[in-house]
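Session log. Operator J.P. requested a structure for one protein chain; no other inputs attached. Running the standard single-chain path with token output.
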Amino acid sequence: MKNNPRHRQTSFLLTIMLLSACASAPPQAPERWRWIVAETGFAASTVEVLRSGALLTTIDVACDLSDAKARRSDTEEHTSSRVEAIYGTPYPNGLLIISCPTGAHSERIDVYDPAGRGATPVYSRVGSYFVDWRIDHGVLLVSYDLPCDAEDRATASCGMAFHAVEEQVEL
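Structure written below.
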């Protein structure tokens, strides 16, 4: 039976079909994780990130995330603190964005890659009065304000003693 040409042809065709099926299978997208605000307090909160019901990482943040915990959906109006997950081409594992008030009038933003770097922020900034973010062409952009230095105060771009900065978050 080994020398049977029909057997060799059938084996060859089965091998080709198996290889082509394996080669054409699309790569599996990473399983998405979800987050919950587990604890909130005046100056500290805890966010847990879960995948398939198992704890992926715990993130302790130095701000009150009560507003984010009470939010019912991502379509609700902006609250003073926000926790949101984004997924996209440059961020296939997803990013967790946490923004909240800090100090008397400042606002902070921390960006995490929970599946890659766990509880260590990949990006962190504090704005004097505001921090905001948006997705533009699939890229995360963060805007915040900083106090003007002595040279900046002489320019028109620094009319209120603060100027806005926009940065692209790169991992």
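Operator note: The radius of gyration is 24 Å.
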